[in-house]
């Protein structure tokens, strides 16, 4: 066997030598090169056919027989043969060829994980935010601090190149400015409501977001809902009315602030979706939310100074007997949860419709209401509990109808 291998190797080497000798003798270099390549390839085929050791190609640690040009393309050794050889080697080297490729994460799993993170961050934000507002009843100051926390994380993201910095024109900034104004109003109204009434009641009122989402989507996106979808909103409205009539902590300022936050937040979602769908715009969901947050911080500072003045100061807090260190820790946790739950919310908005986003947001109310009732031990009457449950059932029915009829009529 060793003598046979040596003979084959010697034959292959002599064939290659004869091929390159032909190159030097031939007057046409291109013709000579083709002749040399043919001789070398034919020799390789003879070696493989003779049972000699095959040429190692380093593919997955194994060896591969080189294809013989005489057995492909009718014996023609043209460019197509070389392309087929390269393609075969690449296919053998790919992970999928050996079953080593990892399947992509399904879109449903990705959305489910994002929604879960969104819910958890929102629960922690509402609990800590309520604790802060009970100690420091200044909703505009708290709103400004939350936007400042978000601006800090956004600046850090851009400085560390975790996400490409946007390059916008003045016209694009002008389009985002109304969204920033609405964003400031929506969060200020939410903090005003949380400061006046219980967390569970605020979120019971905010369960009416699908109603405002359908209304605004019909007005600005041309999406007309069916009669069944409109009918599913009746228990939502009825449940909110029952819960409001029997709420122990009912307050008109808290009630109307929560209703105003519904209108402003849904307006922001609808207009943001319209801006993200504009093919002429180069903004993604992360940069849109980031710029809007920074602009909201700049807008909220003069509003805070005009309405509440500088009250969130160490001297004032010490005079009220508040533990400054504990308050700052809670404010930092609330601000961090506020930014990232809003960021996840906007990332979801770029992947789903405004109405579906509103449904997921309403289902989130269940988790927030239950957790806040348990944490704060909020007293709830049977009628109040029935009204809250009726509103949430209406939201669930609404979401099921949206899944059954995903396409809406366009006006």
Automatic annotation (TrEMBL):
It is a multi-pass membrane protein. Keywords: Chloroplast, Membrane, Plastid, Transit peptide, Transmembrane, Transmembrane helix, Transport. The keyword Transmembrane helix applies. SUPFAM superfamilies: Multidrug resistance efflux transporter EmrE. InterPro entries: EmrE-like (IPR037185), Sugar_P_trans_dom (IPR004853), Tpt_PEP_transl (IPR004696), TPT_transporter (IPR050186). Residues 110-399 form the Sugar phosphate transporter domain. Its main location: plastid. The keyword Chloroplast applies. It is found in: Plastid, Chloroplast membrane. Signal peptide: none annotated. One of its GO terms (cellular component) is chloroplast membrane. The chain crosses the membrane at residues 111-128, 140-160, 172-190, 211-237, 286-307, 380-399. One of its GO terms (biological process) is monocarboxylic acid transport. GO terms for molecular function: carboxylic acid transmembrane transporter activity; organophosphate ester transmembrane transporter activity. NCBIfam families: tpt (TIGR00817). PANTHER family: SOLUTE CARRIER FAMILY 35. This is Sugar phosphate transporter domain-containing protein. It comes from Lolium multiflorum.
